[in-house]
Amino acid sequence: MAGIRAFEENAGRYEAWFHRHRREYESELRAVRELVPPTGRGLEIGAGTGRFAAPLDIPWGVEPCRAMARIAVARGVRVCLGLAEALPWRDEQFDHVLFVVTVCFLDDIPTAFREAHRVLRPRGRIVLGFIDRNSFLGRRYEARKERNVFYRDATFLSTGDVVRQLSTAGFAGFEYRQTLFRRSTGAKEADPVRPGHGDGAFIVIRGTKSPGGVPPAGDR
Questions:
Q1: DSSP assignment of 51-93, as one string?
Q2: What domains, with CATH codes, occur in the chain?
């Protein structure tokens, strides 16, 4: 995972972002909540400090950064140290898996998505939240990323990029939510959550594990 050292050394700074940008955090959490199944066994991949897993009642997480994992554990998330590309679980262990602002840091997106597919039960759901590269916020992050300790190593993706990768990994039936619209940074209330994509900067996609599995990487 790109930038692990930055997160290891700046876990406190990462946490401080949520306090300074409470409106953005609440907007993102509401959008993710609309597509995370309310029941079933869930896993967050790239759980960070548990800012999403804990309020969404997702009991399990995997996280490569020890400093971040310790904070998530304190929030009640059972975290395994590990990578998205090599999940430490057997096949078909979860009903849904969640990635939030993780996809831009993955070293190998196809492998990470195949791993998510592997640990999901039949008809299981994958939910991803991310900043769309083509949005006003995505363009701003891309322009300033060399000055940002966390995003320096990030590779931002468009919604189309993510959907193509998910389809190749064996997911279908996509649903979308979006939030973080062009509003004043001084706004006090969370942004609305709307269906679709293309207007909001923060996009949430939910896909369903297709029956019949996914072919090995070498067969493509």
A1: TTTTTTT--EEEES-HHHHHHHHHTT-EEEE-BTTB-SS-SS-
A2: 4-214 (3.40.50.150)
Q: pLDDT 10s digit of each residue in the chain, 220 long?
A: 556 777 887 888 889 889 998 999 999 999 999 999 999 999 999 999 999 999 999 999 999 999 999 999 999 999 999 999 999 999 999 999 999 999 999 999 999 999 999 999 999 999 999 999 999 999 999 998 888 888 888 999 999 999 999 999 999 999 999 999 976 656 678 999 999 999 999 999 999 998 765 545 544 3
Q: Which strands make up the sheet holding 60-63, listed edge to edge?
A: 78-81, 60-63, 42-45, 94-100, 120-131, 202-209, 171-179, 194-195
Going from the C-alpha of 3 to that of each of 41, 88, 118, 153, 216, the distances in angstroms are: 29, 21, 26, 6, 28
